[in-house]
Amino acid sequence: MAFRVTPRKSDLTGGVLALAVFLSVVVPVAGAVNIVIVSQRNRHFHPDTLIIARGTVVHVINDDRVTHHVYVDSATMKFDSGEQPVGTTVDLEFDHPGTYQVLCAIHPTMHLVVTVK
Ligand SMILES: [Cu+2]
């Protein structure tokens, strides 16, 4: 008797998301907005550097076992997520060209550099 395994739709979605995180691919979603996915794991941002086009949304997912936080404090962008529980997502939209330091107030070693063209 042959044994067949049919992947569930949710398995495929997870695989695509994991691939996007691994390659830091810009994923066009619903219209013209570009979305880049960043994962927080082991108290680091993955990836920890991005080069993106103006208007891109960076989708930061807490894939860790601890609460995180996301903030940007620059002349052209201010953002503060507050506490970011495990499993939740924060979206940052970068509307101005420049280089931005994205940090976590809970874990000072967490550091993401975003260059917006
Ligand atoms: Cu953190």
Can I get a quick summary?
It is built from one helix and ten strands, in the order αββββββββββ. It has one helix spanning 9-23; strands spanning 26-28, 34-41, 44-46, 49-52, 57-62, 68-73, 78-84, 89-93, 98-103, 111-116.
Characterise the protein shown here.
- The chain is mainly beta and 117 residues long.
- The chain has one domain (14-116): Immunoglobulin-like (Sandwich), CATH 2.60.40.420.
- 13% of the residues lie in helices and 46% in strands.
- It has 1 helix and 10 strands; from the N terminus they run αββββββββββ.
- A hairpin with a 5-residue loop joins strand 1 (26-28) and strand 2.
- The radius of gyration is 16 Å and the shape is globular.
- Copper (II) ion binds at residues 43, 68-69, 104, 106-107, 110.
- Residues 43, 68-69, 104, 106-107, 110 line the site of copper (II) ion.
Q: Secondary structure elements and their pairing?
A:
Elements lengths: L8 H15 L2 E3 L5 E8 L2 E3 L2 E4 L4 E6 L5 E6 L4 E7 L4 E5 L4 E6 L7 E6 L1
Parallel strand pairs: 2-5, 4-10
Antiparallel strand pairs: 1-2, 2-3, 5-8, 6-7, 9-10
The structure holds copper (II) ion.
Task: Output the keywords.
Immunoglobulin-like; globular; single chain; three-stranded mixed sheet; 13% helix; five-stranded mixed sheet; binds copper (II) ion; 117 residues; disordered N terminus; mainly beta
As for the CATH topology, it is: Immunoglobulin-like
Strand content: over 45%
Class, according to the CATH hierarchy?
A: Mainly Beta
Shape: globular
Computed CA radius of gyration, to the nearest angstrom: 16 Å
Task: Note the main sheet.
Answer: 5 strands, mixed
